[in-house]
Amino acid sequence: MQPALVAKYGEARLPRYTSYPTAPRFSTAVSAGTYGDWLAAIAPEQKASLYLHIPFCRSMCWYCGCHTTITQRDQPILDYLDMLREEVRLVSAKTRAPISIDHVHFGGGTPTVMQPAEFRALVALLRERFEFASTTEIAVEIDPRTLEPEMATALGEAGVRRASLGVQSFDPVVQKAINRIQSEKQTMEAVSRLRQSGVGSINFDLIYGLPHQTVESCIATAEAAIRMGPERFAVFGYAHIPSFKKHQKLIDEHALAGAEGRVAQAEAIAATLVAAGLPPHRPRPFRPPGRRPGGRAGKRPTAPQFPGLHDGCLRNAHRLRRLGDRTDEGRLCAERGTAGPVRSAHSLASACNGERLPHDTGG
What we know:
Elements: H1 3-9, H2 32-40, E1 47-54, E2 56-57, E3 69-70, H3 75-93, E4 100-108, H4 116-129, E5 131-142, H5 149-158, E6 160-168, H6 172-178, H7 184-196, E7 201-208, H8 215-227, E8 232-237, H9 259-275, E9 285-286, E10 308-309, E11 312-316, H10 320-328, E12 334-339, E13 347-350
Parallel strand pairs: 1-4, 1-13, 2-3, 4-5, 5-6, 6-7, 7-8
Antiparallel strand pairs: 8-9, 10-11, 11-12
């Protein structure tokens, strides 16, 4: 990176937007009624992607910028899944014919926090209400610390072929500082379980700029991760915005690297991955030359933060109670939006309970 750019922007605490238009442009002028019209206008021959947000985790990672809720009980998750299933029915009922689906992405939170039977049932409902092909790719974000063998089996049986695992850093000092203790053994066991269940494409998320992180620990993490054989890496920079995510106040700001240190960490990770035969593919993934995610031709879809179609984007009801009220009344859940062309054509999102920060560092 050019030194002048580092000096000018390096210390700015800004989110790294990966979906456009950005949230501040959304308004109530575009809402559920507009969404219904857009759904009805989708031609039967056009394809779409589905994003389903599961906003629950068992513990809070202090660096996280995702929309999630911490719960040790299953009932809130079950209640949410009831609303999600109803929204799937509402969305699919608005189209002229079952929409043909290219990709399905489960994000969070931790999608695998639900029980295996619940995941199987949810995917079965999607197959019932939408048109799936043999090439439809189902992907899921996973916290390796909580992936049980039964869930790995359920993922394979449901047709999941791509998984994204949160690694972030294997440095125990960094892990303690971000409240995420995750051993290399736990991560490797998750990879093995997924492979045995038929999940053929695995992505690792790495983060630089975390508290107490150094160039040396970034390289060590990247090298350890490479040995586990994932098909792809996504490298993110930690965005410290405690004014937006209150739990980030638990991170010691004095332990965060400055702009030059963050750049050095990012470049060290990139150099390590490139040296292992994993050149970068814009905007940030690294994978072997010619290798496509899932082992077949085609690009990986980005998981949209908001429901997006050719006509615009929308955001669902922010609170669970409002979300439940809408599904109980048989109304679409979108409450804010913006009209105009969007980056990803015909991406539908279900039960996105509130907005995720575009600099998604979850999983």
